């Protein structure tokens, strides 16, 4: 605005100077210039007024905008604070969810491990069940077998019980017979003689030839023992603890063994490969028989001139 007024004053001075220099035709130009200056002045005034109005309007607009901005800022600040609070809450919830997720993940891993362990246990139990089933079947089979064996044992027990009863009855009879024989022995067998069945037996305390042994028995009213049964053989096996002459020989005919009463031997208790008539230790044959203790009380042929103890027998 000051520049406009300066220009106007300058132009007035110029025109004043010019008017003093040019009069007449230049008067109309001065009027024209003045009109232009006036118009410009008015225009400047209007522009200034418009500018003032714009400034005032801008000022009020700025104030209104500032108030609105302040309100908006306050609202935004409050909203921001609320958002921060919500964000804080959401962050806390997120952390809690993360913690819960971590816990759930751990529980899941533990459950998976537990599930794996349970599957292993299940497989072991299935294996054990299979094994137990097989063992049960085996036990059933064994039980059936044991049951059969028990029945067999019961049958055997019943049989043994009957045999025991029979043996007890036999023992009673034998005891009675023993008592009877002891009674008979006390009455009929001489001292140092032992009774068995219906005979008395004597074991010599010395050794001699078969012929002299028989002569000694005859002097005692007896003869060399004549073995007629397995029971008598078993008795004599316990009667003597040393080898002894018995009344058996093949002196009359080689290979034909006869008892002293002249009867031919029909059964015997010879040791293995006996009689063999070996003459390795004598000029004579082995024509006389003995009970050989070293051979399990079996019979053995021997040279008759050798010295051996002897057994005499006579009827009660």
Automatic annotation (TrEMBL):
SUPFAM superfamilies: C-type lectin-like. The chain crosses the membrane at residues 31-56. The keyword Iron does not apply. It holds the Pfam family Lectin_C. Keywords: Coiled coil, Disulfide bond, Lectin, Membrane, Transmembrane, Transmembrane helix. GO terms for molecular function: carbohydrate binding. Residues 196-313 form the C-type lectin domain. Residues 80-184 form a coiled coil. This is C-type lectin domain-containing protein. It comes from Channa striata.
């Amino acid at each position: 605005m000051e520049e406009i007024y300066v220009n106007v004053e300058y132009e007035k001075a110029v025109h004043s100077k010019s008017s003093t220099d040019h009069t007449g035709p230049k008067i109309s130009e001065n009027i024209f210039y003045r009109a232009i200056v006036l118009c410009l002045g008015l225009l400047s005034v209007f522009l200034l007024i418009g500018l003032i109005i714009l400034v005032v309007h801008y000022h009020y607009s700025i104030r209104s905008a500032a108030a609105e901005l302040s309100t908006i800022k306050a609202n935004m600040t409050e909203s921001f604070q609320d958002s921060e609070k919500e964000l804080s809450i959401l962050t806390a919830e997120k952390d809690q969810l993360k913690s819960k997720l971590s816990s759930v993940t751990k529980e899941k891993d533990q459950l998976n491990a537990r599930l794996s362990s349970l599957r292993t246990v299940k497989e072991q139990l299935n294996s054990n069940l299979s094994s137990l089933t097989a063992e049960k079947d085996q036990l059933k089979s064994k039980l059936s077998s044991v049951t059969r064996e028990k029945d067999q044992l019961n049958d055997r027990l019943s049989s043994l019980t009957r045999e025991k009863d029979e043996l007890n009855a036999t023992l009673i009879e034998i005891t009675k017979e023993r008592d009877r024989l002891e009674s008979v022995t006390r009455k009929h067998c001489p001292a140092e003689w032992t009774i068995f069945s219906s005979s008395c037996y004597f074991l010599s305390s010395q050794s001699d030839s078969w012929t002299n042994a028989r002569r000694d028995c005859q002097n005692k009213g007896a003869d060399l023992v004549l073995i007629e049964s397995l029971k008598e053989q078993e008795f004599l096996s316990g009667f003597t603890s040393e080898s002894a002459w018995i009344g058996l020989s093949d002196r009359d005919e080689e290979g034909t063994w006869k008892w002293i009463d002249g009867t031919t031997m029909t059964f015997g208790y010879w040791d293995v490969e006996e009689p063999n008539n070996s003459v390795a230790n004598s000029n004579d044959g082995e024509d006389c028989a003995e009970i050989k203790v070293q051979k399990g009380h079996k019979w053995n042929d021997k040279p008759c001139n050798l010295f051996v103890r002897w057994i005499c027998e006579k009827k009660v």
